[in-house]
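#lab-general

N.A. 3:47 PM
ok so I finally got the sequence cleaned up, no stray characters, all 431 residues accounted for. can someone with queue access submit it? mine expired

B.Y. 3:52 PM
send it over

N.A. 3:53 PM
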Amino acid sequence: MIEAVGLTKRYGDKTAVYNLSFQVRPGAVTGFLGPNGSGKSTTMRMILGLDNPTAGHVTIGGHPYRKLPNAARHVGALLDAKAVHGGRAARNHLLSLAQLSGIPARRVDEVLGVVGLQDVARRRSKGFSLGMGQRLGIAAALLGDPQVLLFDEPVNGLDPEGIHWVRNLMKALAAEGRTVFVSSHLMSEMALTADHLIVIGRGQLMADMSVTEFISANSADFARVRTPDTEPQLREKLTSALTEAGGHVLPEQDGALRVTGLPLPRISDVAHASDVRLWELSPHQASLEEAYMRMTQGAVDYRSTADQKAGLQQPLPPGAQPPMPVPGQGQPGWYAPPPPQQGGQPFAAPQGAPGQAPAGPYGAPQAPGAVPGGQPANPYAAQQAQQAPQAPQMPQPPASAPPAAAPAPPSAAPAPASAPVTDPTKPEDAR
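B.Y. 4:20 PM
back already:
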């Protein structure tokens, strides 16, 4: 178990953590949440003895980390996945940690298999991706088979399969009776992984309770009610009836009603007694992210502002109208419309007129010499035909009159009969 009592840490005139007290119990995954700069990493460093607290103390199993005999066999931690020598292979990195703690070498191969790095064990870690580095850091934390584990952003850089694997790993470790303390900014992942939450803001404790209790304490559940859109008088009638029954009714942007203060069966009874048909009656519970945002909105140090794009926007030409906003865009549940379809094929080009060249694979007419459905026989033929100079056309005599033979000059020798006849219609480079 991890226990912090009155933990305080100051850096000059900056107070990173102030009078922080909590317990992380075994057998559960405890999430450690807070905005950027709230003191989460500083707290974890004090737990591991990397920073000395200005006041208070923190213990692991009743002892400070520095007093634990062979601490690597009792506590495993991942604070910085990049804390690895880049020129050292993954297996050699873990092997050096194992030798320092008296851990057998076969354990190195075991944890490499657990984190899925057995195929790259001989590769240098400087060539690892961010997700592979996270897996190597998790392997180092599991190396001594410790009873207490601390992870700071363990899913950072992992793909969906890796995130799912970490989630199941955390739950499995807690089910074995270990103490698991996880810091993360992914609220959706914490909602699926954590059993208990410790939330801090600006270095002070804000919440220490289960996930279910945290959501209930920092959100308001409501019922979503919808009446037929073609009969707006029913919506007004139901609003009056629910208000008289003690409920609080607010209109939604899409015409539905948000009702608080009444359970769903009571809302159904009131609608039935008022002879109002319902198209929708559904409960809504806030997510962990919504509850977290509501609690910590006053403890955020770094807030973004709107991008005004000063001096970067081009003025509209005279007479041009600004683009019209898309109805519903930006509202919950809005999605971009699908592309137009013609004949069931998205992005299909319109069929050409009779006699037009057949369309290519992307709707454009195929170049001369192209093979239907494939690559053109000579992809540069069209370009050469455009760039090559055309030979002047020779005047053709009428078809009815036989061509008159021009008298040869007396000094001109007769042309040999085997001389090839050139086609004046061909480009010069093709003759």
